[in-house]
């Protein structure tokens, strides 16, 4: 049985999902979170759909063992390639959410977007989830998608706010696929860490959309509707797990989450 005081489980290939975790902490301050970063297998973006599903199901089983009331796939690549499989596996044992649907609904319903660009990993862009959902929800929107595979490993390796990151960002954003856009969806939860650099490239004239706050607000809405909000929990009881310790995880995680976190390595087999 799902209980209000049960934790929220979320996972990503690395630190990217901590952008969503940070927003959840701000909007749902009494909820406990259990985070899993699959750092041993990052990036997910160059993996096959079958492999992404395999990784996602193992993590889902782990989060279910922690009695999570919500399984939030805080990774665009896993959301676009494994959401249905995770949802079927979980059944009625927990609520399963992804980070794509809330963003496409927000852009289609609450913005004046006409020409939308989407950047993400190869696997996310190949899935065409953003393009399909945006077209279905608002037929007036024109969508252009571009795979930006170097951004995740660049961020995970700590190349941010320097000449290397600026050169990579500039090389991608100057591509013809993104010419004339008025809105850009950051289709990867890693990308908010470089949101300012991306906005600067466009002289802050393009509406840059990241999923963190949008997804956290959607989660709040769902938990409220289902009367599953935890209103009496204690702060700072969150748990963080990784499948492998990486050199920059601690540094970047503080940047994403806003505070130092204690990591535990666990092998899911």
Describe the structure.
There is one protein chain. 42% of the residues lie in helices and 17% in strands. It has helices at 18-27, 49-65, 76-90, 101-110, 122-127, 129-137, 151-156, 163-173, 195-201, 212-225, 249-257, and strands spanning 8-12, 33-37, 70-73, 95-98, 115-120, 142-147, 183-187, 207-209, 239-242, 263-265. The strands form two sheets. A six-stranded parallel beta sheet has the order 4-3-1-2-9-10, sandwiched between helices. The protein has a four-stranded parallel beta sheet with strand order 6-5-7-8, with helices on both faces. The protein is globular, with a radius of gyration of 17 Å. The model has no long low-confidence stretch (mean pLDDT 93).
What is the radius of gyration? 17 Å
Task: Give the name of the CATH architecture of the largest domain.
Answer: 3-Layer(aba) Sandwich
How confident is the prediction overall: mean pLDDT?
93
Please state roughly what percent of the residues sit in beta strands, choosing from under 5%, 5-15%, 15-25%, 25-35%, 35-45% or over 45%.
15-25%
Strands of the biggest beta sheet: in what spatial order? 4-3-1-2-9-10
Output the structural class: alpha/beta
Helix content: 40-55%
CATH class of the largest domain: Alpha Beta
Q: Sketch the topology as an H/E string, one letter per element.
A: EHEHEHEHEHHEHHEHEHEHE
Total beta strand runs: 10
Largest sheet: 6 strands, parallel
Uncertain segments of ≥5 residues (pLDDT<50)?
none
Q: CATH fold name of the largest domain, please?
A: Rossmann fold
Structurally, the number of domains stands at 2
What's the shape? globular
Distance between the termini: 27 Å
Question: How many H/I helical runs?
Answer: 11
